[in-house]
Amino acid sequence: MKVPLLYGKKTLDVVLPDSLDVTVIRKPDMPLVADPQGATVACLKNVAELARGCRTACVLVCDVTRPVPNGLFLRPLIKQLTSAGIDRENITILIATGLHRPNEGDELASVIEDEWVFNNIRIVNHVAQNDQDHAEIGVTRSGTPVKLDRCFIEADFKVATGLVEPHFMAGWSGGRKVIAPGVAHADTIRTLHSARFIEDPLTRECNLEGNPLHDEQLEIVAMVRDRCQSDIYALNTVIDEARQLAFVNFGEIESSHAEAAQFADRYCVVETEKKFDVVVTSAAGFPLDLTYYQAIKGFVTPLDILKDDATLVVASECAEGIGSQSFRKSQQFLMEEGPNAFLRRIERKRLADIDEWETEMQLKATRATRVQLYSEGLRGADRELTGVEMVDSLQEAVDENISRTVDPSVAIIPEGPYVVPRYAA
């Protein structure tokens, strides 16, 4: 059997012997939207009425790490806003970078996916460390300082757009997550990503019930609503493995996101009847596997179906290397201190150091299983900084692991963290 894994902008084939019991874990077929453009326009039909009387608008758009179909909805959304009487010069598209790098040039154009929008609407990258760009909203009940981009806070009409997919901390991406951490100040982001949130067992993929990070994000949305005395809206999309539109809606941010997450949950969470000694997965291909930082999401989501002493083999291109300098520093600390000392140190901190949370999430995987990584983009010292076992051939790593196990079964997850397997005990 030959199974292709998503890898960069292509696929990598894993060949498995016919004698093996192979379980390919992927989403069931989604009921695709027959007319994506028409459905998108239809769900936006009330925007002009909602925006009537507003002078300014801010539209949040996810950065390059999310394959959001922006080309479908940005122009019809802008058209609705202008028909409500908002001048084009008073509409801003704000790229919700969180603490990621800015998207510029051709990359920014690829994010927007619409030449007319790119050339006619003001587009700005959120910069989390620019203090003067943020408005102080207050402090949550649990002590998170809430500071958000002024461009968003000061706009009369606010829309967050995005993709609703499994997220290994917040449960599901999109909606409230596009606001915080999307356009939040570094202090807000560093608090939300501190160990007191991340080490909670309910801070996990595809879970909103009791998830303390999700609850904190909803509280932040409520604080913004109270401060601005106006609703916040969201346009939510769900796509299938081929990145075709399966769901789109528009509405008040909390309820519309919940509806989208409920739809996605029916397809993205896949039950298995057994656990496995060997699981082979990807980091979902481009754009999610651009860096090792993002690839770690593929380490965490399959953990529920791994036996004790199992091996997880991950393919991630990492074309841009390990990630930010902050993440590099965090990985260096991990190498110097060791996992236990690293965790003890960060658990005492109120504010996480930038990007150390991804190292913390990596440790959730390596505490539970053996991780092997195949990547053509990681070279030299970057390979050592991963802290996992690097392999030079994906096929040879799979073959070797299969030869060591007495269980003639293996699980393959071609789409990586976009599919979340659950053991049906």
Structural features:
globular, 6-stranded mixed sheet, 20 strands, 425 residues, alpha/beta, 6-stranded parallel sheet, 25% strand, single chain
Please provide a written account of the structure:
This protein has 425 residues and is of the alpha/beta class. It has 18 helices and 20 strands. The strands form 6 sheets. It has a 6-stranded parallel β-sheet with strand order 3-19-15-16-17-18, with helices on one face. The protein has a 6-stranded mixed β-sheet with strand order 6-5-4-9-12-13, sandwiched between helices. The longest helix has 17 residues, at 212-228. It is globular. The chain starts with a strand and ends with a strand.
Question: What is this entry, summarized?
Answer:
The chain has 425 residues and is α/β, with parallel strands linked by helices. Helix content is 35%, strand content 25%. Strand 1 and strand 2 form a beta hairpin.
List the topology elements.
Blueprint (H helix, E strand, L loop, with lengths): L1 E6 L2 E6 L5 E4 L11 H8 L3 H5 L5 E6 L7 H14 L7 E6 L8 H8 L2 H6 L1 E4 L8 E6 L5 E5 H4 L3 E7 L2 E2 L3 E2 L3 H4 L6 H7 L2 H4 L13 H17 L4 E7 L5 E8 H16 E4 L3 E7 L9 H4 L1 H4 L5 E10 L9 H13 L1 H9 L8 H11 L3 E5 L6 H5 L3 E3 L2 H11 L4 E5 L6 E4 L2
Parallel strand pairs: 3-19, 4-5, 4-9, 5-6, 9-12, 14-20, 15-16, 15-19, 16-17, 17-18
Antiparallel strand pairs: 1-2, 7-8, 10-11, 12-13
